[in-house]
Structure prediction request, 349 residues.
Amino acid sequence: MRRVAVIPGDGIGPEVIHAARRVLDAVSAGHGIELSYVEFDWSCRRYLEQGAMMPADGLDTLRRFDAILLGAVGWPDVADHVSLWGLLIPIRRAFRQYVNLRPIRVFDGVDSPLRDAGPVDLVVVRENVEGEYSEAGGRLNRGFPDELAIQEAIFTRAGVSRIVDYAFELAGTRRGYLTSATKSNGIVHTLPFWDEIVAERAAAFPAVRWDSEHIDALAAKFVLTPQRFDVVVASNLFGDILSDLAAAVAGSIGIAPSANLDPTRTHPSMFEPVHGSAPDIAGRGIANPVGAVWSAALMLDHLGHPAAAAALVAAIEHTLATPSTRTPDLGGTASTTEVTDALIAALEG
Ligand code: NAI
Ligand code: MG
Prediction:
């Protein structure tokens, strides 16, 4: 029996998590998987009522679980850095979830905004606990004309090596091709260091072909020739931007999943759709549940159930290929519930 902490969050978070739970129940029954769930109301709603996104002992509570399934947090009345630094970033850091894994595919039936996107199937491996997202720095002379802000990027040998190793290993299980995102022409300390470590670690993975691209050129190639990429490894900031770009190339942010992994399995990993709480469509029953369901598939894979994970992805493929079971973000008219019912029918069919 594996224990899953569920944090539905705000906006469409609860809507897509409800859908993911229904689909998880169906696939678990079919594959003899036993999962138990405990739901937490940690959210901007809680922040507005009680002054904190989660209780003071929230991380200790989560520590006892095998995985965390999260919807989305964020609400217009609460500054976005409060919801991010009050919940998501503490979880990623306390549980050493140093890999942010974001698979991207162009599915049959989903129109990419690109004319000839072709068979895109890539994974962005984003460094998730250091890099440009650091607390090192500060602000001086607030309110004066000489006011200034300094933000330090932190790149460690241990931190870069482990994310690069993870990406090389993953590429070895896929098409055997790794691209490293860099900008060592302009950023003269951290990214040359990153490049050196990538080249060093490559020696341990002779079966994987690899190259290195500057982030600006890479952004252009993601739009012009997304088919050519397999696994792309990037620092925290570059990976964040590239994965949203790639998700847009794949047709809708509503289908993109992500996993925040502690590959050592010392701590629980966290699985969440890439999209946010979508206040503009919250409460209307039209949120696309696919991003949350695909995230649940990544969770099943991580918990040791690859066959069930593959069955979920096959159900997603089938459902997206059918025009009547697409939500409005994909040009369809189906509701969240109708897509969820179709996913369950595809699993059982
Ligand atoms: P968003 O992803 O919530 O929405 C962007 C656009 O995509 C909106 O038009 C929305 O309707 C649409 N969209 C997103 N998910 C969809 C789905 N499943 N089905 C159909 N359409 C979908 O990003 P936005 O508007 O920048 O942020 C809204 C709030 O969410 C903010 O408070 C932000 O901080 C938060 N956020 C939270 C994240 C998280 O919890 N990991 C990630 C990104 C944003
Ligand atoms: Mg982002």
